[in-house]
Structures are given as C-alpha cells and as structure tokens.
Fold:
Amino acid sequence: MPDILLVCGVDEAGRGPLAGPVSAAAVILDPDHPIAGLADSKKLSARQRDQLVPLIHERALAWAVAYADVDEIDSLNILQATLLAMRRAVQALHIQPQQILVDGLYCPQTGIPSRAIVKGDSKVAAISAASILAKTARDALMLQLHEQYPRYGFADHKGYPTAAHLAALREHGVSDVHRKSFRPVHELLFPFKYGQPPD
Structure:
C-alpha cells in the first residue's frame, strides 16, 4: 500500500422516503486512478449513475454499502438510523481509513477522525462516489420491494411521498416496509391522534 492518507467518503440515500431502508456507502478512492464525472448523485441522471458504479467498484481502493432497516428507523429515528448505516458501511470496508469525510452535519461514531462537510457530495470526490453507490444500491432494493408490493408503485417513486404514493397508501393501507414513525404513515395508523376520524 502506498504511503498516502486513506480518506473515506461517506454519504447516505433515502432519509426522506416513507418506505424502505436508509442506505449508506463508504468509499476510499485511489488517487492514482481518478474517476471522471463524479458528482452529487442527485445531479446525475440514472444512466450516468449506472455508468459510474462499475468504475467506482473497479478503481476505488475500497468500498461498501450498508443499510438500516425500517424497524431500526422507527425505533431509533431517521437520523440515528442513518448514522448506524454509515457506521456499518465504514466497518464493512476491507481497508481501515485514516480519516472519514461525511456529507451533511453529523458523523457516525467509528473511532476514526471524522469531519462533516455540508454539501460534501458536491465538493469531495470520495463523498460523491459514496452518494452514487448509496443511491443506486437503494434504488435497486426498492425495485425488489416493488416486486413484493406492486400496489404502491415503489419502482416509480422509490418510497418518496409523491401524490401517487400517498394515494396508494390511503387505498391499500400501510405495508410492512413502510416507516410507521413518519407522519403521513402514522396518521393513517392513528387518525384520532391527528383529529381525523377513521375510515
């Protein structure tokens, strides 16, 4: 291993949806094998993200994706579940980094020196790479959930609270993969708490 500072970029995907897990990825890029086109995953098309994934897999020194599931989100809250997924991703790396750079405001507890960077996925290549892996892995998982729960349209909205998703929730009720602590779902389960009569 060359004598370089091993910096790990970390990012998440799926904090806002009403269903499915939150994902996180950790990536240690190889400075000798840069990857052109890395950017915040939200600013890339699905095709661009899919083209970058194999390059990240091939050229990164190490990478990992991890999740926190719906039960963990509901029991911990979405912030703590996100930090848990981030910690799992870092721990899954086969190389231990010397520094961790995280997109956002908070860092997972890993015992490794860490720094949170607002909009880091637009500023740090390793965080951009992590954002792409977290996003594409979660999207793929939501396509699998669509096969199990086709009535909700997960293939289209990936669990985010679109009008179509909210309408499907009202029509079909809450599934096992919905986040019951999130208000639109919680309101359906406990309408009286929100001054709503049950259907």
The beta strands are 7-13, 22-28, 62-68, 99-103, 114-117.
